[in-house]
Design a protein that fits this description.
301 residues, alpha/beta, Rossmann fold, Helicase, Ruva Protein, domain 3, 2 domains, two-stranded antiparallel sheet, 13 helices, 9 strands, elongated
Amino acid sequence: MKPYLADPGKTKELLARHDFLIKKGYGQNFLIDPSVPEGIAAAAGLGPDDTVLEIGPGIGTLTQYLAASAGRVIAVEIDRKLEPVLADSLKGFDNVSIVWGDILKQDIPALLAGSGVTPPVKVVANLPYYITSPILMGLLKQARLFSSLTVMVQAEVGERMAAAPGSKTYGYLSVSVQYSARPRLVMSVPPHAFLPQPKVSSAVVRLDALDGPAVRCRNENFMSAVSKAAFLQRRKTLANALAGYHPLGVTREQAEEALTALGLDPRIRGERLGLAEFAALSDILWDMTHANDQEQKEISL
């Protein structure tokens, strides 16, 4: 069956037929420009052997295009009131199954196993802007389950994901995403491609999951905290930023010593460091702040 929904008239007709009211609280903005779902499906590189995990199918506009290209689509939707709408829009697309629930609360390995699917799968999603980061970070922590993630996000978020060190948009999100995946901006999406129109532009980003972390470090959570601290107050020097982030337990003297050991100017700012430098910095700071822990372990032995 061919996709047909990316059309303003047919979208309004479907919504009216089921007396469905769009919920701003769920970030519901439905695509009405066919070039966008076509572009997303093409960017995901879908084929008959692929299983797609779609997040937030909404009324099924993008789902139709995914189903027309992939072997199977498993779509997770939080709004149960969309059940009759999706039953209508996906009629005839027999390779789609809907899982009702919050993606943030899903046990994805169990979900895939229960559906008889062996990872890796491809994620495709038009992510709600208000919870983009929690969803994305949750997925990337399980990157081994996915070969790629093709997501539509707010334009500035997409730019931050793909940003390089030293650029104005490079930050904590850049480091977090690039630790687990290789991001690439695919296309821009203007507000008029949606019903209702959002106030901001969007972007489609493809993230190819890495076989393992981009860099190795002593403790992933600690490295994440170091990079987070680096960007909380961008105008501060990195040494001051690290010392000012109390969860790290790092003094300014330790931060300056660690940076000097790496051959970096203690006055450097966080946006100048790449992933390898953040990993090396976090390892030195980890050893400094956990030296007593190691001594205690050795004593207890």
